[in-house]
Amino acid sequence: MTDRRRGPGFNTSQLRITRGALIIAGLQLGVSLVFLLVDKQTQATLAEYLVASPSNVFGHYRVWTLVTSPFLETEFLSLLLGLFMLWMFVPTLERFWGTPRFYRFVAITSLAGTVFGVLVGQLLHRDYPILGLSPFTFAAVVAFGVIYARQPVRFFGVLPLTGRQMMYGFIGFLLLFVVLQGLWEKGASYAAAMIAAAVMTSKTLGPGLAWRRWKIARARARLSVIEGGAPRPPGNPSSPRKKSDERFIN
Questions:
Q1: Distance (Å, rounded) from C-alpha 150 to C-alpha 141?
Q2: How far is CA 123 from CA 34, 74, 110, 188, in A?
């Protein structure tokens, strides 16, 4: 028997790559390898049309770079680490949600991270590029920590943690990383993606729940209750009604 309070079950066999995660990883791997294998001049040209930065988005109005930039990593080590994180955590989330909801999660967290990172760069007057799937990856860690909060996880197969502890550990590491190096654009990117993940996985703040609450409130406002049953005796409105099989009508 399992303890229901601990939430959905988790086991390491669920770490096998899933279709959605494989497609996302394949897109990033393909785009990044093309970029890494061409010459410097071609890399500069590709960066102009693929990488989201304040100058590209607000100066040259290349708004599509907000979508293309997450699929490009310009450093091979960062690419390997990102792919490892995709294999380690993301498949479990896709199995829990299903592929369509997983794709929505990827799109929303990646776009939120890229948009807010570029906005902060514009406000700080620094042309800092926001690229790669790191915002989505750290958002996935937050989602993992919310859904599997009490489940034991061995980080890198060695360190025993719960899902929530692992999430807090990542947040603390990112906070130090951003503050010590002054990478405010990256910090804004990570924060926006992780907040979006927390909202999407919350049991009280999710957009789906808000939509259902609005529909219920709207339906209630358009309904009224009419009291049925036998009429009261004439001349004595305070006397009880006679028993009747008629019920209240909406």
A1: 14
A2: 32, 24, 20, 12
List, in order of start, the domains of the chain with CATH numbers. 12-205 (1.20.1540.10)
Of the candidates 82, 55, 204, 207, which has an alpha carbon nearest to the alpha carbon of residue 138?
82
Do 56 and 64 form a contact (C-beta atoms < 8 A)?
Answer: no
The amino acid that residue 87 corresponds to is: W
* Cα distance between residue 217 and residue 232, in whole Å: 33
The C-alpha angle with vertex 107 and arms to 103 and 112, in degrees rounded to 5, equals 150
- The CA radius of gyration of the chain, in Å to the nearest whole number, is 26
Per-residue pLDDT of 107-165, as tens digits, reads: 999 999 999 999 999 999 999 999 999 999 999 999 999 998 888 776 655 667 888 88
